[in-house]
Amino acid sequence: MSSDDTDLRDEKPQFVLPLVVRIERDAPPSRTDALETAARAVLEILTDERSLGDGEWARAVADWEDARIRKVVRRARGAEWRRAGTLPGITVTGKEAEVRVFPPVPLDGWPKDLARLQVSGTHLDDPAEPGPVPDGAVTLWFNPELDMTAGKSMAQAGHGAQLLWWAMPDADRVAWRAEGFPLAVRTAPADRWAALVASGLPVVRDAGFTEIAPGETVVSEGSARFAPRLRLDLP
Questions:
Q1: Are strands 105-106 and 98-101 parallel, antiparallel or unpaired?
Q2: Residue 7: per-residue pLDDT
Q3: Which of 39, 96, 155, 218 has its CB 3.0 to 4.6 Å from that of 204, i.e. a possible disulfide?
Q4: Which of 211, 153, 199, 227 minimizes the C-alpha distance to 219?
């Protein structure tokens, strides 16, 4: 995208897509499961009937997509999580992770029960290696040179899933959604990362507002059944 396009996006009202991950003190989810669940949560709200046409969230989603596509992940447990669940949104569950996604809000217009939640220092670990990508799942490849908190990584996974959704032919979108958005988040092999970035697949390019310098974070690779049709970049 040209610098003029970037300037035009920056001049528009800025919105953010809020996501909240449940992290109970004694039972945190695994990192990869949280990232994959966040990615599916983004897809769920993009395709929800309330986000489309004349739906109650459609204007907020359209305004958000018209500027920079920001996502912020906060964490909650106990009563905080229960309060978040009373606000309009969608809760998506993984193997053990729970993520609730909410319709976009202005940068300075977070609902009180979400604004009070912690956004920094979300750290999660994988007790074991994630294993091979399941058959038929698309893959969100993470830059092996980056070290990001789980919250930041969840937002990046959401970006990658959104780019892949935009890049898919309509028939693949319908099939992918019908199967529950099968996807996997993996760290790219160091010797493959440069080729992935140059491959023409959708690439997430972070603007560098938090944690990391501007640059590539995620490459979204389709599967044999669900394939992107063009390259899209998301700053």
A1: unpaired
A2: 53
A3: 218
A4: 199
